[in-house]
Amino acid sequence: MTTGSIEAGEAKEAKSEGGAASKAGAAAKEKGDGKGKADAGGPSIVTLRKISRSFQRGRETIQVLDGLDLEVPAGSFEALMGPSGSGKSTLLNIIAGLDRPTTGDAEVAGSNLSRMSDGELAKWRSQNIGFIFQSFNLIPVLTAAQNVELPLLLTHLSSDERKKRVATALRVVGLEDRMEHYPRQLSGGQEQRVAIARAIVNDPKIIVADEPTGDLDRKSADDVLTLMERLNKEFHKTIFMVTHDPAAAERASVQRRLDKGALQ
Amino acid sequence: MIPVQYNIRSLMVRKVTTAATAGGIALVVFVFAAALMLGEGINRAFGSSGRQDVAVVLRNGSDSELSSGINNDLVNLLKGQPGVSPDRAGEGGVPAVPGVIGEVVVVVSAEIDDGSGGTTNVLIRGMPAGGMAFRPEAKIVSGRAPAPGSNEVVVGKSITGRFKGISPGQSFDLRRNRPLQVVGVFEANGSAYESEVWGDLDVIRTSLGRSAGVSSVRVRLASNGQFSAFKSAVEADKQLGMKATRESDYFRKQSEQTSGFLVGLGIGVAILFSLAAMIGAAITMNGAVANRSKEIGTLRALGFSRLSILISFVLEAIALALIGGVIGTALVMLLASVEVSVLNFQTFSQVVLSFRPTAAVVVTALVFSGVMGLVGGLFPAIRASRVSPVEAMRA
Ligand SMILES: Nc1ncnc2c1ncn2[C@@H]1O[C@H](COP(=O)(O)OP(=O)(O)OP(=O)(O)O)[C@@H](O)[C@H]1O
Ligand SMILES: [Mg+2]
Q1: What's the DSSP call for residue B145?
Q2: Rounded-to-integer distance, Cα B48 and Cα B51, Å
Q3: Four-residue CA torsion sign, B143, B144, B145, B150
Q4: What is the pLDDT along chain B (395 residues), one digit of tens a residue?
Q5: Which stretches of A178-223 are assigned E, i.e. beta strand?
Q6: Is the shortest distance between the CB of A155 and ligand 1 below 6 Å?
Q7: d(CA B27, CA B30)
């Protein structure tokens, strides 16, 4: 199934098979109009209708999101900003299928998440979402290659095929020579790039990133943002990024603001 | 599936807690495996002792040769019973093998030769000519066989050298001024016989002043299958007042109390300890789950199911317990060369037992440790499986 979705994704983009690295040349040509295309109101890949999310803390109910609507067109690179506690992560978690809205409908990558069981959601995430976390979230006892391979263990790919894809993904992030390194042997920026390789290895449609540069110095942050731009433009990933960093938001094609549970 | 390497390396990273928990499990497995090995040793000493085609005849109401007594004239009556093999004459170096032998069995108090000054009982068996030939499994391994009609005796392999006076070249008193001279050592296939001293029936009987009878009678059957015919004939004859048991059953019954007590004690202690070890494993795994909730959340976010998280942590607990299991099992093998001398409750004589390592012991001990890991790790693993994928997002 996952294999199918990867192939479907690549076919749609009229890409040669063999993955990310081989696309570099072809994609470079599109660079000029890539951004325009992505923004140009394609079919939406994320549709949120009247989403509310509240948390119960003792007797108190905290209403974080309240009747929020959102459409994200396929192929766009969106940045979400807003004050701390405004519900940015809560919103991202709902889009990524990690959390469910209290009320409202979330349709993401063609599936209505509100109707899916926990198990179905997990499977759906493995096929449709790539995650980039603020603190990288690599498994410290696994090597870079093994970390990147994790999402592929949920597919029926052969070990050889998995190895090939891991190598390709690490080549895209420029760390093919660090395959056997453990996370503690890498710099923060390198760790985040391994995490990005892990996020794309399954060829998901959407990449979500919650403060991807929050733990990085300026230089590493810029590298990571450049890489994310490339994923958007070359590989046509829809990216939904939460950030506090105006410079990061600047790289996105769409900037949104969340305040007091509503999009501005 | 989450690769098992993930769990193994996670255990290796937490060296100290892993070592402490595995150490506790190793201790339990050691005790458990030691009890099993002792059980195997007892089985070998008693269970494998005795022949299927030999019947032990005791006086009605006696459970052991020591408490039994049978009149001399009745011994001969047994020769005519159904199923009994006739005496076989010796020819060309092959010794004569009697079909029926009556023997005297007594215990003497002997001083343990370890400087402690303690004493214990040793079982002495007086046998007629052909008594050794009656037991083809018995062989002289050093010294020589006793001369018939003399006060010479041979000592079983497992007790030789353990008691003052009871080793080749030495002598000990059966009764005051009635010395027995040890001239050799015999072995008998690891059976309980190896904890006995064998001498001449008449000499021993005379020394004890009870020439009128024997303790027990052994009967060689024409075949294994003849036992029931023999038993019913003997037991139907009220005049005889005897009962017959297969020799193998006789030894097994004798061992039951001793082995039941020792093995039961060992396993009881191991199971008690195992509760503590399982709680230890549970605490360790619970800590691991708490420390790794973000890692678990990440795996869940990537799409691993609750079930695969559950399996992963159960496997980690089992691997942790198996580390202990392997260490405990390896250490317990050191006991293989250790022999313990215990009191046989049936005969109140000393029996020497060894810890016998067998494949079954190793497998059982490892399975036991695995089960400890499974039980101890189950609840922490369930907890792990309930970690929300949102945990991945927490800073
Ligand atoms: N599981 C939860 N239980 C209770 N309250 C929660 C939970 N998750 C989030 N909240 C609350 O919801 C509100 C929004 O949280 P959220 O993490 O979405 O904010 P944010 O915009 O991402 O903030 P930041 O910029 O600091 O990351 C906060 O008040 C937070 O305390
Ligand atoms: Mg947040």
Answers
A1: P
A2: 8
A3: negative
A4: 898 989 999 999 999 999 999 999 999 999 999 988 988 887 776 666 678 899 999 999 888 888 899 988 888 888 889 999 998 888 877 788 899 999 999 988 888 887 788 888 889 999 998 899 999 989 999 999 999 999 999 999 888 888 889 999 999 988 888 899 999 999 988 777 888 999 999 999 888 887 778 999 999 999 989 999 999 999 999 888 999 999 988 887 877 766 777 788 888 888 899 999 999 999 999 999 999 999 999 999 999 999 999 999 999 999 999 999 999 999 999 998 888 777 665 555 566 778 888 999 999 999 999 999 999 999 999 999 999 999 999 86
A5: 206-210
A6: no
A7: 5
DSSP type of residue A132: E
When the candidates are 2.30.30.40, 3.40.50.10300, 3.40.50.300, 3.40.630.30, the CATH number that belongs to A3-14+39-256 is 3.40.50.300
Would strands B100-111 and B139-143 be described as parallel, antiparallel, or unpaired? unpaired
CA nearest to A97, candidates A75, A124, A65? A124
Residue B137: CA count within 13 A, CB half-sphere: 13
DSSP bridge partners of B120: B110
Region of poorest pLDDT, from A6-15, A134-143, A155-164, B366-375: A6-15
Query: Cα-flanking dihedrals φ and ψ of residue B67, to 5°?
Result: -95, 0
Q: What is the pLDDT of residue A158?
A: 96
CA–CA distance, B145 with B139 (Å, rounded to integer): 9
Cα-to-centroid distance, A88 and ligand 2 (Å): 6
d(CA A187, CA A194): 10
Q: Which of B45, B62, B242, B5 is nearest to B156 (CA)?
A: B45
Distant-in-sequence contacts of B332-339, Cβ < 8 A, 24+ apart: B332/B29, B332/B30, B332/B33, B332/B34, B332/B37, B332/B357, B332/B365, B333/B357, B335/B34, B335/B37, B336/B37, B339/B158
Which residue carries 């979500």 as its tokens?
A208
Q: Is A85 touching ligand 1 by the criterion CB < 6 Å?
A: yes
Query: What φ, ψ does residue B182 adopt, rounded to 5°?
Result: -85, 125
With contact defined as beta carbons under 8 Å apart, do B277 and B28 qualify? yes
Q: Which ligand is nearest to the CA of A63?
A: 1
Instruction: Kindly report the three-state secondary structure assignment for every residue of B38-100.
Output: HHHHHHHHHHCCCCCCEEEEEECCCCCHHHCCEEHHHHHHHHCCCCECCCECCECCECCECCE
Question: How far is Cα B312 from Cα B53, in angstroms, rounded to an integer?
Answer: 55
Chain B positions in Cβ-Cβ contact with residue A89 (cut-off 8 Å): 393
CB contacts, 8 Å: B395 with chain A: 134-135
Domain residue spans in chain A? 3-14+39-256
Q: State the average pLDDT over residues A173-199.
A: 97
Please say whether the beta carbons of A70 and A101 come within 8 A: no
Would you state the pLDDT for residue B73?
86
* Rounded distance between C-alpha atoms, residue A154 and residue A123, angstroms: 8
Spell out the residues 6+ positions from residue A60 whose beta carbon is closer than 8 angstroms to its own: none
Expressed in angstroms and rounded, the spacing between residue A49 Cα and the centre of ligand 1 is: 20
